[in-house]
Amino acid sequence: AQSVAQPEDQVNVAEGNPLTVKCTYSVSGNPYLFWYVQYPNRGLQFLLKYITGDNLVKGSYGFEAEFNKSQTSFHLKKPSALVSDSALYFCAVRNNQGGKLIFGQGTELSVKP
Amino acid sequence: GAVVSQHPSRVICKSGTSVKIECRSLDFQATTMFWYRQFPKKSLMLMATSNEGSKATYEQGVEKDKFLINHASLTLSTLTVTSAHPEDSSFYICSARGGQGAEQYFGPGTRLTVT
Predict the structure, then answer these.
(1) Tens of pLDDT along chain B (115 residues)?
(2) Mutating which of A37, A50, A101 best tests the B interface, going by the most B Cβ atoms within 10 A?
(3) Cβ contact B2:B28 at 8 Å
């Protein structure tokens, strides 16, 4: 069965510092991995995805994520956090047979000035 | 990216009434649409998956007679919450996909409040 774990309910970072939001996954077959961001009372916005190829994936708004097959992780990173990055972040996984997209429980990122 | 719209964005209804939420793919044909429910600051719970022209597949624990899903065309799916109760109050988000390996796009969500 597919599953995604985001071990941190909340991450607090000072503006300008690097940020990491953690995600680990379990899926049969090769994984398709995604990160989404959600602002209050809004739908999900796509940030980036890993399908195949380079393990380091660059996405929107300066975010990037690194696929680590041995650790079954796909942590989201940004070198320098902005206050406007404060939002709810979701990691998601799907198998390569086009199955359902399964979400992690979400991590609330708070960036303080 | 592709655009998925939802209507209405907010709805308030009285207990016992039914409410319909529409989900449209605006610039692509969605062979598959998904309906999610989200509680405050919580993850998205997949309710059902629908393929155009066929019956929806509901996740375990989701009442198919209460949450009626229709995917009548390649650009429209509807979710009808029948005989709504206050515990049905939630944020409902739809998502659409153009094919089995295609990207999945999300609507902006509908806030349902049942009084």
Answers:
(1) 678 999 999 999 999 999 999 999 998 888 899 999 998 778 889 999 998 888 899 999 999 999 999 988 899 999 999 999 999 999 999 999 887 667 788 999 999 999 9
(2) A101
(3) yes
